Amino acid sequence: MFEALNQVRKKWDDSEVIMVYDDLLKSKRLYLVLPAQHILPHHIILMKKHGRGPFRVIFDEKFSHVLELPFMNVIYKGISSRYQIISMIEENNSNINLSSSRSISVSHVDASNETSNESLALTISELGNLVEDYESRSKNAVELMNSFTSNFKLPGSVALHRSDIGGFKSRVSICEIAIALCQISSQTCATALIEFNSGDGSNEFELDEAKNIASKLNLQFIGAKNIFDLWRSIKKMDKNKIAEIRFD
Questions:
Q1: What is this structure's pTM?
Q2: Which domain covers residue 122, as residue numbers?
Q3: Quick check: is 237 in a domain?
C-alpha cells in the first residue's frame, strides 16, 4: 500500500503527471493529476491529448475560506430572484447543496489566449503558487486576497473546485480524493486534474483496463481506495467517522 504512495511522491517530486482511478465511486473514472504548481505547457499538451472536459484546480476548504471563494450554487441563488430562468432551472437541482464543489472559473491576467497551452499552464501554476504562499505563511490573508484579485480575471478557462470541510469525514468525491493524496504526499494542496477520455463515450473503466491504460502511457497508477486507506491510516481515522455521502 505504501509503495504506491512512495512512487507517487517520486513522480510528483519529478513533476510528472500520474493517473488516479476513482474506484471509490460508482462511475469508476480515470483522472490525469498533478499538483498545480508543477504544471508546465508540456503537461497541458499531455492532459489535453488524453483528457476531456475543463481543467480543474482543487483547493482545500481552508484556503477557499481565506479567499472567500463562493460555491457556484450560492451565486445562482443570489441572482435567481432577478433572473427567472435561474430560479426555474434550480428546481431541477434538489441535491446541489450537498453535491456541488464548483466555484468560479478564472484565467491569469497575462493569459492572452486563455486556452493555449502556455496560458493554461500559467493560470494553473500561479494558482498553485498562491496556495504555497498560504501554506508557507509567506503571505497573510489580506495579501493572498490582493494577489488573487490582482492576478486573475473572470470569466476564465480553469474551473476552481473546493473539497468539503473535513475532507473524507464530510464527503467523498474526486475533490476529497485529490486533496487527500496531496496531504499524504506532502505536496501543496492545490491539485490540477482533467478526466481521462475513453474515446468511446463511456468513460468508465474496470480496474485491469485502467491499469493497462496507465502502463501504455507510462503513467504512475494509484486507486482512490488505496488513497482512502492510506489517508485513514496516516490520519488514524476510524471508519465510523468517514462520510457515507459520495458523489461522482
A1: 0.90
A2: 2-241
A3: yes
| Percent helix, strand and coil across the chain, each to the nearest 5 | 50, 20, 30
Mean pLDDT of 137-163: 95
**pLDDT tens digits for range 100-147:** 688 999 999 999 888 899 999 999 999 999 999 999 999 999 999 999
Does residue 144 belong to any structural domain of this protein? yes
Distances (CA, A) of 120 to 70, 111, 159, 168, 247: 22, 8, 11, 29, 27
CA 57 from centre of chain: 4
For 25-40, letters b (16+ CB in 10 Å) and e give eeebbbbbbbbbbbbe
Q: Please name the helix (run of DSSP H) or strand (run of DSSP E) that holds residue 192, with its range, or none.
A: strand 190-196
CATH number reported for the structural domain that contains residue 119 in this entry? 3.90.870.10
248 falls within a domain:
no
Q: If we measure between CA atoms, which residue out of 175, 213, 183 comes closest to residue 51? A: 213
Q: Which residues contact 92 (CB under 8 A, 6 or more apart)?
A: none
The count of domains in the chain is 1
